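Good morning,

Attaching, inline, the backbone tokens for the sequence recovery test we're adding to the shared suite. The designed sequence is right after.
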């Protein structure tokens, strides 16, 4: 499958590396085709890796991953609007407000009564937005079995059931167990999963180690 990964940070390159390992063709997208991080990433692979602008990558991908920092995501996706139309957009980004320093908080207009996932869906109504993988460390996203043999929870939400089913299949290909993928319903579920970052940061500060969340009932 041809997959676009928007964003050249640790999350984007980690996701892209795993997808290439699984045999997918990946184009990593950034603001400029001459982005040094993107070029350096592509040069690590003999085949199946290319880079381009956000727009070029969006047109390339049958499925698109949004790994752009939350505070810049809407603006960046607008530059790729035609490319993401009628496609599945797997949104991993979190609307963290980094402008005020620590302790970090969420962008006020994208929390409580709204979320980044919802805002993306509002701005791009023809795109099938699916939120997942945003409640854990990036290496755990692509290697769930490194912790408790994969027995921990990954949340998913989105308005389109068929799109969620396709994303669940891709998650299982990556290594997630079906029984650990918890469907929270429509994209409004993003309000909860994005807010987990505030707890996540505190747990990380208290443990300094690999951890995840597990729903027990």
């Amino acid at each position: 499958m041809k997959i676009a990964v928007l964003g050249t940070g640790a999350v984007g390159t980690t996701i892209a590396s795993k997808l290439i390992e699984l045999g997918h063709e990946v184009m990593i997208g950034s603001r400029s085709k001459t982005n040094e991080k993107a070029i350096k990433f592509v040069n690590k692979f003999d085949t199946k890796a290319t880079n381009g602008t956000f727009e070029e990558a969006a047109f390339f991908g049958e499925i698109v991953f949004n790994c752009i920092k939350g505070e810049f995501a809407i603006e960046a996706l607008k530059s790729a609007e035609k490319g993401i139309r009628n496609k599945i957009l797997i949104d991993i980004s979190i609307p963290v407000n980094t402008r005020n320093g620590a302790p970090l908080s969420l962008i006020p207009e994208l929390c409580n009564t709204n979320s980044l996932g919802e805002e993306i869906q509002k701005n791009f109504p023809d795109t099938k937005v699916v939120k997942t993988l945003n409640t854990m460390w990036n290496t755990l996203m692509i290697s769930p079995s490194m912790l408790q043999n994969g027995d921990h929870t990954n949340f998913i939400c989105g308005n389109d059931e068929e799109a969620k089913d396709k994303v669940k299949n891709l998650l299982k290909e990556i290594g997630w167990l079906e029984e650990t993928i918890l469907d929270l319903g429509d994209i409004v579920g993003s309000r909860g999963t994005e807010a987990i970052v505030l707890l996540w940061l505190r747990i990380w500060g208290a443990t300094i180690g690999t951890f995840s969340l597990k729903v027990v009932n």
